[in-house]
Design a protein that fits this description.
Helix content is about 35%, strand content about 25%. It is an alpha+beta fold. The C terminus is likely disordered. It binds flavin-adenine dinucleotide (FAD).
Length: about 525
């Protein structure tokens, strides 16, 4: 069987595994990341899209809250291209206890989360759709984060540091000799080829599947509870700010604007198999009802899609049994299998949140370095990811701006003769004449079936733009053109041509009122009379 020799094997291509690979590769380890599907096909591609400020956990889980704000600050620096800096509101709806706001404020301050209470009227100005019966509003530095972009950027950073990323490679077995893990046997899910990756160190970052992979290594009892959550994408940005209910974490209490949509979520139900998270109608109904509490009329918006993700919640086996996965800490767990199971060369990292993926990766690679007896400085808190080197946040209008930059030149001015704006401008600049009729001859502008009905007013505007003609001169040129066209059209006004002439007449006379546009010329006569 074919085999590959490397220093570090990372299993699992979600945020955690990609973060570990990024960290290990940038510290100079020869690294391979394997993922059984595509990157971020697990929970990372099915999460809510929120870069937590920590506010959500400030009352209930301070450790998680402190980790979130710590990482929130770092990711804004090293991964801004994946973040839309929407800001976040925690709002007290009529269904929430207003006194919780004080606990929330105290919790945020204790965890170092910048928080401010603002007047609801201020929030209504910024977010006109939110419930007008909201009585308290707090601002926190929540944001939206793109999980796919993040993971692929970590993969890019890994390959830029000579690492390899093998998608569609499933780990079938963990290779062990005596008490040492020596890599894994993998299978390409595309070609069916099986081979061995011999690694000096193996890291299990398989999220909700971490218990199964730990079992393969002969390290039983790693309990990762699967906490299912559903989310629904609505067809608009109903809000531009992340809006959270100011209450203990519950279902349907966060609305996140993500690019052109907004996503309401989520639930938290313990399920047995992380590969089978189903969505029930009851969950959907509850989620839409919860959306209504934040944005009245929520149900009237079009629901685009519903999906479910599975939280990897590591359960300390010493803690009492619980059926409510919200009671399990949102902090992460790094399992040192040398200490726990007497197995070296193997670590498991699971739990946590996407927001804390970088910190989880750093702790893991630090621990690996400690076990390997080497000191290598972590660079992921200082060196930005490849797409984030400009230091700019992602912005929802970015694609439109990019598109418009060239769209302007590519604009189709004359649909009949397929004349683009750049060729029209070229002719206008080359020719000294500002006469639209001269330009017509150069490009066949306005000579197709509509006879200038749709292109001529556009061309006039461009003429004004390019030649810096004043408006009366441009109007005059348009009127001259129409007059000239009219001569050739008038004698053949029957059938479809008559209909077209009538439409053109409505455009020029009815909409633009060319007859009365200022031209500074006394003898201009009405155009198209009788058409
Ligand atoms: C409903 C929901 C909403 C959430 N919302 C947020 C949020 O808004 N903000 C936030 O910060 N966090 C959020 N989280 C938490 C966050 O999404 C997760 O903590 C994070 O994505 C986990 O990443 P991961 O890499 O550990 O796991 P995953 O993304 O699940 O990655 C594990 C990978 O391991 C792979 N794998 C498994 N077995 C094998 C094998 N044998 N061989 C090879 N590969 C294997 C899987 O295919 C998978 O891709 C949410 C979670 C849920 C469920």
């Amino acid at each position: 069987m074919k085999s590959v020799e490397i220093e570090v094997l990372v299993i699992g291509g979600g945020a955690t595994g990609s973060g570990v690979a990024w960290d290990a590769a940038t510290r100079g380890f020869d690294t391979i990341l394997v993922e059984r599907k595509d990157l971020a096909e697990g929970t990372t591609g099915r999460f809510h899209g929120l870069l937590h400020s920590g506010g959500r956990y400030a009352v209930k889980d301070r450790l998680a809250a402190e980790e979130c704000i710590h990482e929130n600050r770092i990711l804004r620096r090293v991964a801004p291209d994946t973040i839309e800096d929407t800001g976040g509101y925690f709002v007290t709806t009529p269904w929430d206890d207003p006194a919780f706001g004080d606990k929330f404020m105290d919790g945020c301050k204790a965890c170092g989360i910048p928080v401010e209470e603002i007047a609801p009227s201020e929030a209504f100005l910024a977010e006109p759709r939110i419930n007008r019966d909201i009585s308290r509003v707090f601002t926190v530095p929540d944001a939206a984060i793109d999980g796919w972009k993040l993971v692929w950027d970590c993969a890019k950073a890994t390959t830029e540091h000579e690492g390899q990323v093998l998608t569609y490679h499933r780990v079938l077995e963990i290779l062990r000799s005596s008490d040492v893990v020596r890599g894994a046997k993998v299978r390409s899910e595309l070609s069916g080829e099986e081979f061995e990756i011999h690694a000096g160190f193996t890291i299990n970052a398989t999220g909700a599947w971490a218990g199964k992979v730990a079992d393969m290594a002969g390290c039983p009892g790693v309990q990762v509870l699967a906490g299912k959550g559903i989310m629904i994408a609505m067809n608009h940005r109903l809000v531009n700010t992340v809006v959270n209910r100011c209450t203990m974490p519950a279902d349907g209490d966060i609305l996140v604007p993500i690019r052109t949509v907004s996503v309401i979520g989520t639930t938290d139900i313990r399920i047995k198999d992380p590969d089978e998270p189903d969505v029930t109608q009851d969950e959907v109904d509850r989620m839409l009802d919860d959306g209504e509490k934040l944005v009245p009329g929520f149900r009237k918006a079009r629901a685009l899609r519903v999906w479910a993700g599975v939280r990897p919640l590591f359960k300390d086996t010493r803690a009492p049994e619980t059926s409510d996965t919200r009671d399990v800490s949102r902090s992460h767990a790094l399992l040192d299998h040398k200490e726990r199971d007497g197995v070296t060369g193997f670590l498991t990292i699971t739990g946590g949140k996407l927001t804390t993926f970088r910190m989880m990766a750093q702790e893991t690679v630090d621990k690996m370095c400690e076990q390997l007896g080497t000191e290598r400085e972590c660079r992921t808190s200082s060196d930005p990811l490849p797409s984030s080197k400009t230091g700019k946040f992602m912005w929802v209008g970015e694609r439109l701006k990019e598109r418009e930059a060239t769209m302007h030149d590519d604009q189709l001015i004359c649909e009949c003769e397929l004349i683009q704006r750049n060729s029209l401008e070229g002719v206008m600049k080359q020719r000294s004449s500002a006469n639209l009729d001269d330009i017509r001859r150069a490009l066949r502008l306005g000579m197709g079936p509509c006879q200038g009905g749709f292109c001529m007013y556009r061309a006039t505007g461009i003429l004004h733009d390019v030649e810096r003609m004043d408006a009366p001169a441009a109007n005059r040129s348009l009127r001259d053109f129409l007059q000239e066209r009219w001569k050739g059209v008038q004698p053949i006004l029957y059938g479809d041509q008559l209909r077209q002439a009538r439409l053109d007449d409505w455009i020029f006379q009815g909409v633009l009122d060319v007859e009365h546009l200022p031209t500074d010329r006394l003898d201009d006569r009405a155009i198209g009379e009788g058409a």
